[in-house]
Amino acid sequence: MNPLIPLFVITPLAGAFLIMIIGRFIAEFNKYFTSLVLLFLACISFYFLFTTGEKIFVYKVGGWEPINRVPIGIYMVMDGLTAIVVCIINLIGFLSAVYSISYIKRYTAGNYFYALFCLMIGGMNGVVLSGDLFNIFVFLEISVISSYALVAFGVESNELEASFKYQILGGVASFLILFGIGFIYWKTKTLNIADIKEAFNNGYNKTTYLFIQILLLSGFGLKAAIIPFHAWLPDAHSSAPSPISAMLSGIFIKAVGIYVIIRLFFNMFTTSEEMAILITTLGTLSMVIGVFLAIGQWDIKRLLAYHSISQMGYVVMSVGIGMILIARNTKPEIVSLAIAGGLFHLVNHAAFKGLLFLNAGAIEYTIGTRDLKEMGGLAKVMPVTSATSFIASMSISGIPPFNGFFSKLIIIIAAVMGRFYLLAALAVIVSIITLASFLKFQRYAFFNKPDNDILKDVREVPFPMIFSMVILSIICVLLSLLVIPEVRNAILMPAIEILTDPAKYSTSILVQ
Amino acid sequence: MITYLMCFILFLVGLYGVITRRNLVKIAVSLSIMEISTFLFFALVGYIDGGIAPIVDPADPVKVYVDPLPQALVLTAIVIGLATTAMLMAVIIRLYRKYGTFDIREIKNLRG
Predict the structure, then answer these.
(1) Which of B15, B31, B99 sits opposite A157 (nearest CB)?
(2) Which run of H or E residues covers position A57?
């Protein structure tokens, strides 16, 4: 029982409550309080990242101990994979909150913004920490409802339309997930992920099992915007306020989509080859189609949103390759390399895509447009934005020595070693197209000569925005250290072991 | 078994409505139908033939009770569903004020 674990959910929920009450009387309370809450959470998440290691901490809510090894309470689980994801959620959340201090002056109703922001963080932390399937659903709904509201925060026609689309597809996804959970409860009479694994080990009907897998994959795939389910993402992510876009693209689709898919398909279901091939195919499709849809975009945020689909494709493909290799019983080194590549790219994507959306927000903040054709020559007047966005663009297109290069390299090596030559070739080609697309972004936004005199009284953005962007670009560079084997063993290895060992997660939770 | 199948058909009816309707409010109603079918499925999962309400009577321990957990889950899910529907309706009202129509074909700023 580690008493720090529930703080990840309690603090942001209490923060949202306090902001709505105290923020009415004290004008600047909401801004600084949100940043403080998230700084505190980021600190304890780093504490967990460095201390969790091989251990699995379980917190039983309400102190309900299991009876005859049957868990009856709600479990919150902190293991290697959770520690990584919680860490990126709270770190990017903190930087977005600091960034919003200046950015949110464009909108009224700051209290609502920060309260929803805290609720979204609390929901995502809950999804990631929960060891109980229905609790995942509840926290998922908390975070998606607040993200619906945040997407529509501008209440102009585009924002409302995007939010409507997002809500309809998100609603369908929620009910698919709920249906899947109902099926699982029907068949196993339990909702604890570890216990479900044990129950399925005692035998199951193959057709029902497949049906449950498909229901949950399509539900969480809709939340993660994997390609056949991606329609809502470019609209929603480009219409939201920029710090929220950074949160949605940087961490939201990972925490409520990719993370849950990884957790369920490695630790709850027995890996079967046909599901693994399906997941890898979906990942490859997202990777390829996402980047082709991104090429033609002239709106910066839409371009970045399509690239999110494509980069998430890398993660899903790499994890899927790991899953196929587990099902085929090949060498464990290749399996762990493939999963390491996927997780590494997931962390990297949070850093550079968060940074790119903050850059896009900074550009929109100063010159008031998101259309690449209308801007140009910003490198001289906004040196910090230009430099940080250059680092982020090089990271996402996989140029050494930035982090994106190393994660893509690991993914490609793993694909070649696992004899998936086509996938490796596609990964290289997509990376080149990504580079082309970001060179276009750099050239039109920062280096071209502008046609009209939009640069007349443009100045660099205020300090809080610069602070977030600089910190994120430093993180982008520092993350490439994860490629060093010692660092990788300390940070990524515990997560990989949890995923590759099929029995470890369930047995070590049930004995506690 | 037939009741479970009916639940699934109701779910598909809702999905059909979401896909084919053109009116924003009708899409919201179809989404609610999907929601209700899921709740119904949960309630059915917990039902045991001949079971009574799960209030344990120490005098007569052999009684058959229905499973109380799905009922608790459905209550939670209903509250969540209320929040989602309220949010959706709020956005639909705002959309109507902006565009002056409920027709989804008229609301198409975001493309490509």
Answers:
(1) B99
(2) strand A57-61
CB-based contact A477:A403 (threshold 8 Å) = yes
Range of the domain at B84: 2-52+62-99
Q: What is the pTM of this model?
A: 0.93
Question: Minimal Cα distance from A144: which residue of B?
Answer: B84
> What is the domain partition of chain A in residue ranges?
7-510
Neighbouring CB atoms inside 10 A of A443's CB total 12
* Beta carbons of A241 and A150 less than 8 angstroms apart: yes
Query: ipTM of the assembly?
Result: 0.93
What secondary structure letter does DSSP report for A447? I
Amino acid at A427: A
What gap in Å lies between CA A498 and CA A253, rounded to an integer? 22
Q: DSSP class of residue A455?
A: T
Give domain status of residue B104, yes or no: no
Q: Which residue of B has its CA nearest to A153?
A: B91
Cβ-Cβ contacts under 8 Å, B15 against chain A: 172
Stretch (H or E) spanning A99: helix A80-103
Chain A residues within 8 A of B17 when measuring between CB atoms: none
The residue in chain B having the minimum alpha-carbon distance to the alpha carbon of residue A177 is: B38
**Amino acid at site A405:** F
Question: At B68, which CATH number?
Answer: 1.10.287.3510
Q: Do A141 and B80 lie within an 8 Å CB cutoff?
A: yes
Check CB contact under 8 Å for A175 and B42: no
Counted domains in chain B: 1
Q: Cα–Cα distance between B93 and B103 in angstroms, integer?
A: 13
CB contact under 8 A, B112 and A155: no
Tens-digit pLDDT profile for chain A (512 aa)? 688 899 999 999 999 999 999 988 988 888 899 999 999 999 999 999 988 878 888 999 888 888 888 888 899 999 889 999 999 999 999 999 999 998 888 788 888 999 999 999 999 999 999 989 999 999 999 999 999 999 998 888 889 999 999 999 999 999 999 999 999 998 888 899 988 988 888 878 888 899 999 999 999 999 998 988 888 899 899 889 999 999 999 899 999 999 999 999 998 888 888 999 999 999 999 999 999 998 888 888 999 999 999 999 999 999 999 999 998 888 888 999 999 999 999 999 999 999 999 999 998 888 888 888 888 778 888 888 889 999 999 999 888 888 889 999 999 999 999 889 999 999 999 999 999 999 988 888 888 776 666 666 777 788 889 999 999 999 988 888 888 888 888 888 888 888 888 788 888 888 87
In a domain, B106, yes or no: no
Chain A positions in Cβ-Cβ contact with residue B107 (cut-off 8 Å): 157, 161, 164
- Contact between A160 and B18 using a beta-carbon 8 Å cutoff: no
